[in-house]
Prior knowledge:
Number of helices: 16
Largest sheet: 7 strands, parallel
Shape: globular
Number of strands: 11
Order of helices and strands: HHHHEHEEHHHEHHHEHEEEHEHEHEH
Bound molecules: coproporphyrinogen III
Distance between the termini: 26 Å
Structural class: alpha/beta
Helix content: 40-55%
Amino acid sequence: xxxxxxxxxxxxxxxxxxDYTPAWLMRQAGRYLPEYCETRRRAGSFLDLCxxxxxxxxxxxxxLARYDLDAAILFSDILTVPDAMGLGLYFAEGEGPxxxxxxxxxWEIRDLEAPDPNVHLRYVMDAxxxxxxxxxxxxxxxxxxxxxxxxxxxxxxxxxxxxxxxVKTMLYDRPDLLHRILEVTTRAVVDYLNAQIESGVxxxxxxxxxxxxxxxxxxxxxxxxxMRRIVEGLIKTRDGERIPSIVFTKxxxxxxxxxxxxxxxxxxxxxxxxxxxxxxRVGDRVALQGNLDPMALFASPEAVAAEAKRVLDxxxxxxxxxxxxxxxxxxGHGISQFTPPDNVSALVEAVRQYSRRV
Length: 358
Ligand code: CP3
């Protein structure tokens, strides 16, 4: 299996020379696209969409039909893993994700088991295979999972939370129980990402959306150490090609050196970190991905283009610390459902034009 025709994304992650700065957007397939809303309607619900491989394939490709993006990301959700562990995921209208059986009792935590991804998450593997066939080697396909700590937040809280009171109470009162959840979840994530790789994804990303809410010391113990174990357990090459990994801790700007040391190929950055400064700190150890403020997409197309240039300039081109290359353009977090689709065109075009090397 050879590299995709457009492999700028993989090259940037591996810090090889690129034709221009490759771009993709977190949550690029989502509710800001009318065609996504239409497919979701046909599926019945968001979860039905995730569990239907051909519809998941359809929405994965929708943003690529509209915009000149350099990677596709598997359409799914991080919470399918705890769902496969038996917690019963559902989405209450307007309230976000919820679990029917959150982890509250010690016996539930003792009984927790890592699911077999090729059985309980078969629909994800089928979607990966179908998307790879449909992409026909045009651009790479990114697979993903949540970080163990971020998954544990939802599994213990039972849904989204403002203050993470339950999971943090467990962290301080019964760290042994939280470690048990994190250990099982880590095994589940390693198996899940490796199954995605075996099914055809060409890079993987770990979303640590809530690691940045942890106290300084707790971040390493309860989030980073488990992500290190995941990175260590990943299949590194498939059919002779390296499968790069990206770690994204939202709010993790102060821990970049530690994140770079766990062996990942790229670090995702939110918009509060300066790219040049980040590059100075991590040198040539990892590539960087990010980091436009998703709210910038609500300004005029001209302002969007100007902000895109500012992000590219902040990385500093090929002469910056750590040597040439190593930037993947992205947002600093997922795109908002209220984003005007035309502003996304302005963004992607600006990145391409301004960063073209040839
Ligand atoms: O990037 C992509 O296009 C791939 C698909 C993707 C989704 N969720 C689709 C989705 C990815 C990579 C995720 C990751 C995810 N899911 C994270 C980590 C990244 C982040 O945003 O911080 C988290 C924390 C979740 C959990 C989750 N799923 C929440 C909190 C919500 C509700 C939030 C909201 O915007 O309503 C979801 C639902 C969800 N996942 C949607 C999409 C497109 C919207 C569901 C819908 O169509 O109604």
